Amino acid sequence: MSSSPWARLKRLEERFESALWKLRLIAILPVVMSLASTGITFVLGTMEIGKAILGLGQAHQPDKAYMAHLLGGVVTGIDLYLIGIALLIFGYGVYELLISPIDAARGTHGGEGLLDIRDLDQLKEKLVKVLVVALIVSAFKAMLTLPISDGPSLVYFCLGVLLLAISGFLVTGNLGKGSHDKKAL
Question: Is there a single domain that holds both residue 65 and residue 154?
Answer without folding.
Answer: no
